[in-house]
Give the backbone structure.
Amino acid sequence: MKKALLIVSIIFSVVAGNAQSKTYTNPILSGFYPDPSICRVSTDYYLVNSTFAYFPGIPVFHSKDLVNWKLIGHVITRTEQMDFTGKGVSRALFAPTIRYHDGLFYLTCTMIDGKGNFVVTAKNPAGPWSNPYWLPLDGIDPSLFFDEDGQSYITYNSIPPDNKSLYNGHRTIRMNKFDHKNMKVVGESKILVNGGTDISKKPSWIEGPHIVKKYGYYYLISAEGGTGADHSVVAFRSKKIDGPYVSYEKNPILTQRNLRERKYPITSTGHADLVELPDGTWQAVFLGTRPYEADYFNTGRETFLTPVAWKDEWPVINPGQELVQYEYPHPLPEKKDNVTTTKYSGNFSYKEDFNDARLNMDWIFLRNVKEQWYNLTNRKGFLSIKVRRETAAGKMNPSFVARRQQHTTFTASTSIMFNPQTENEKAGLTCFINEDHFYFICRSKENNKDVVQLYQSPKNATDSNSMLLLATKVLPSGNGSLQLKVDAKAHNYSFYYSTNNKDWKLVKDNVDGKFLSTKVAGGFGANFVGNTLALYATSLGTPANNTALFDWFEYKGNDEVHK
């Protein structure tokens, strides 16, 4: 018996040692993957993110080891669930939370500029998810907690007491009982936290609440300080689910607000969700940003992973060091998913040849797709996109198929076959962060000549024809394939074209990439998404009966910090 236990102990030590000897790379989800929420079911982990007005909404990732993630589906996949038409790209779906209870997955979220807070359910996290049950809650960021006695509760960011703000950013964390069997909020709300960790210091935007239970305490983990550079994670605890909650005297348990002056900084860390592993250790996922200069970044808010330690019965994220690191030891033995080759972390490249019957799930659209304006079957091996009136500068659903920009230094290229009939018909590649901040390199016509044009988005999004023409190159006659490319190095974007996929000709270099940064494109108060790279076709509001054929799309990310 002792010999058997010794063998088991040795095997466990070897496995644990192997896990500790390997490191993973942060962010674990690169690019626009903000507001992460995570839950564990046995040895499976599921993670979701905000998607705002992109469709399908709210990706669902699965992992066995917290490091290798596979996109298995989305939560909002049908217009009958909700419609993003008319919503700005940074509106719609804010801050989802995923939880599991008694054989069912629950996802709570807020539909901004819509009906507000809701819950949807699914037996399989890959979907399909139910239509929403709308919740009469005055606030945002709802999060469910299922207690050991079978009761459930919902916490959320809400209005100040009596709806009277004492200062800008004054909010509360409130709680209601929740009848999860009938999907109903029960009774009156109770304020758990007023203002934040210390209301005398006027803490701003206490939000993103999650409850975990340990040591006989209920721990309320929240974001504080706004989602910009002052972002942080703070902790409170109580012996009773409904309080009173005491603020941790060493709050915040995570922030990088005073640690921005370093090479390859990670900033704006916050909005965390904690998960316990089978061995009793804990990890945290949270959002952060990677500026290339000052507060400029184009990749949006990304998902990071760090260990959690419990000290004096309080949680501490990223224990033992102040700076969030780009590498940590694996929290679990590595279990790579052999089904997918898609990477989301570190430097990576991929090429889409459009040979499958369906688009890869990583492609996303601006708002709900209500008509079949794209397909992969009209011409095998090509993505066919109809030229339509809708534009990326509007708030409808343009002919726009996008992937996230996931690196500060990258190239993205595509090959297109397109014969424009009028000067208003344009198809190509766009670098897009919102309706009035994008670049568009396209094939079109000018004075009856085939041309490559580079545009900057209109200053007034209501006038799609007011795009600023930055450069034009006349193409040789003929309707063969054309390749378009953007080469980005931090804030420096350069655009090229080729007619043989070998000899690249410059359209324009030194294009201002800061124009696509969160700071310039509205700041944290108005812009919550990251840059995307889209295959795009439009007739700028005029009638059209044409189609662009995209042969392939290739992306190569190569950030210095990951070398």
